[in-house]
Amino acid sequence: MISVPTARALRTSGVAWEPASGDRFVIVDRDMDEQVFVLSDMVVETHDHASGRVLGFNGTTEWALDSVDAEQALWLPREGQLRELLGTTFAGLAVEEVEPGDDGLGRFVVLTRSAEGERRSRSDDVEEAYALAVLAVRAQASRST
After folding, report:
1. Which of 82, 104, 140, 143 might form a disulfide with 130, Cβ 3.0–4.6 angstroms?
2. Domain ranges of the chain
3. How is residue 88 annotated by DSSP?
């Protein structure tokens, strides 16, 4: 799962979230960054009102949350969603070999291609590697315009 700082960077870069069932998110600036919620038709639903979009917590007994403004929720996109954000720049995913004595987990490498060439984004978490690739592609695109 991507980190909260990386999710914040994605949002800052202009990645828009259209909440859908199965999406993961955290509620920021309420000391709840560690609690991951999943949007579901059964527990947390999106409600569009004239005053704006809210996320409704149905049947939640652990927290006194009826709803929060969608802007307070920070999307934690999944691997497939991140790959979709990469679009045609996505060129592949690989696992780097590790040196003897390393933790043995390896590193995930997302390869992207553009007119400027190839770029590799690495992380020990596959979704984080994809998110870093999205950020790199978006940064490169903004420099080109």
Report:
1. 82
2. 18-76, 79-144
3. G
* Nearest residue to 44 (alpha-carbon basis) of 61, 28, 21: 21
Judge contact between 70 and 52, C-beta under 8 A.
yes
Q: Which residues face 94 on adjacent strands?
A: 109
pTM: 0.80
Q: Which of 23-32, 64-73, 84-93 has the highest mean pLDDT?
A: 84-93
Q: What residues contact 26, with CB distance under 8 A and at least 6 apart?
A: 4, 7, 32, 33, 34, 35, 36, 37, 73, 74, 76
